[in-house]
């Protein structure tokens, strides 16, 4: 009876104020006060008779109030959260699902993947943490002339546009060339090209995303975040500090190695926006963490491939999520 209230409250509370090893991480819970009243037959939370010391002035049923519906509404806070982006977004989403599972280990969960959409739900709590894999944010369309990267079009907004909380990321795939590049042509308005400076296409795509958010998001209904650029520690990558590889690294760097050029582009785009977007500024602090990547210990431990892009879990993305919840 009424356990759904505590469950919902607990999850939302743990989302905003989760407690790990006795340490309270964030106290800012204003988000739980936005939502709606939902009729719920499992309410009220207790029968008045079970509480013998209620003051007569509060005891409506005992004083013959004839109706009961007023006791049957539950407060439902906002609770659909979606990560949208590439595997660095997956990295952070997965970290968050772990943090919440650990916060409420007895709660049943359903983890389901359908195409590009991953859905991690706590059914008892009616909370879904979603992840949509969408590396470029803008569209890639298949035409007769080939796979076309459309810098001016963003159709996945159909999927994420109405979430209560959205957190985006995009950068790493903009660097891929050759076989890992999933498009053949770039179209921007009336211009078609084979290729362009990747920093320029990145900015154009971000501007298309920003324009969509500015014209469609209602800030009283949705909160928008952008995960700052996650730095690589593979030598030769744009923005990799000191061109040093992550293999065998166990110590933090003493110096982040200067601003990341893609992060500067992202900051420039977000600064110009009209609607409030919170940039989760994790670039500099992550640049110091050359020790935090899977290196050869990812993907089944194949010693011939070193991953200096993603992050081990537990690890750095857990700290991104602490900062994310501090910002909520
Ligand atoms: C996520 O999964 C839950 C439980 O299976 C389901 O009720 C919900 O509709 C799903 N959400 C989306 C967006 O697919
Ligand atoms: C769960 O959330 C969905 C979507 O917000 C809502 O329609 C539904 O009534 C909720 N169910 C419960 C049991 O709270
Ligand atoms: C794109 O082409 C259309 C039709 O040819 C034209 O009307 C429009 O002005 C062009 N837009 C730009 C930005 O050049
Ligand atoms: C992000 O953090 C870095 C390091 O503290 C700082 O230099 C930079 O100005 C910050 N960017 C924004 C947009 O706040
Ligand atoms: C690494 O080795 C595995 C099996 O030994 C092989 O299938 C894979 O293609 C190799 N990967 C690279 C990047 O060489």
TrEMBL record:
Family: Belongs to the PC-esterase family. TBL subfamily.
Superkingdom, taxonomy of origin: Eukaryota
Domain annotation Trichome birefringence-like C-terminal: ranges: 79-326
Organism for this UniProt entry: Penstemon smallii
Primary residence: membrane
InterPro entries named in the record: TBL, TBL_C, TBL_N
Subcellular location: Membrane
Membrane topology: Single-pass membrane protein
Name of the protein in its database record: Trichome birefringence-like N-terminal domain-containing protein
Signal peptide boundaries: 1-22
Alphabetical list of Pfam families matching this protein: PC-Esterase, PMR5N
Organism phylogeny: Eukaryota, Viridiplantae, Streptophyta, Embryophyta, Tracheophyta
Trichome birefringence-like N-terminal domain sequence ranges: 29-78
GO annotation, cellular component aspect: membrane
Entry keywords, A to Z: Membrane, Signal, Signal-anchor, Transmembrane, Transmembrane helix
């Amino acid at each position: 009876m009424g356990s759904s209230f505590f469950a919902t409250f607990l999850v939302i509370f743990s989302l905003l104020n989760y407690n790990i090893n006795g340490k309270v991480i964030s106290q800012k819970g204003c988000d739980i006060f936005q939502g709606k009243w939902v009729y719920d037959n499992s309410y009220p939370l207790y029968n008045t008779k079970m509480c013998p010391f209620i003051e007569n002035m509060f005891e409506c049923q005992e004083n013959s109030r004839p109706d009961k519906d007023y006791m049957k509404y539950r407060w439902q806070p906002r609770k659909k959260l979606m990560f949208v982006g590439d595997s660095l977004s997956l990295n952070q989403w997965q970290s968050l699902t772990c943090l919440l599972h650990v916060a409420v280990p007895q709660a049943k969960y359903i983890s389901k993947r359908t195409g590009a959409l991953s859905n991690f739900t706590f059914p008892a709590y009616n909370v879904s943490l979603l992840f949509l894999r969408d590396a470029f944010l803008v569209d890639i369309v298949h035409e007769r002339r080939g796979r076309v990267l459309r810098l001016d079009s963003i159709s996945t907004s159909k999927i994420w546009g109405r979430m209560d909380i959205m957190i985006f990321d995009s950068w790493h795939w903009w660097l891929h060339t050759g076989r890992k590049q999933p498009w053949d042509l770039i179209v921007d308005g009336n211009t078609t090209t084979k290729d362009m400076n990747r920093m320029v296409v990145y900015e154009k795509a971000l501007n298309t995303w920003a324009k969509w958010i500015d014209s469609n998001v209602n800030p009283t209904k949705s909160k928008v975040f952008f995960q700052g650029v996650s730095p690589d520690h593979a030598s030769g990558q744009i923005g990799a500090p000191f061109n040093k590889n992550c293999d065998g690294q166990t110590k933090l760097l003493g110096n982040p190695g200067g601003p990341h050029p893609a992060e500067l582009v992202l900051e420039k785009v977000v600064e110009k926006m009209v609607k409030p977007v919170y940039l989760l500024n994790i670039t500099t602090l992550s640049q110091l963490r050359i020790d935090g990547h899977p290196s050869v210990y990812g993907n089944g431990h194949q010693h011939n491939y070193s991953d200096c892009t993603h992050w081990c879990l537990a690890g750095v993305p857990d700290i991104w999520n602490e900062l994310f919840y501090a910002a909520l």
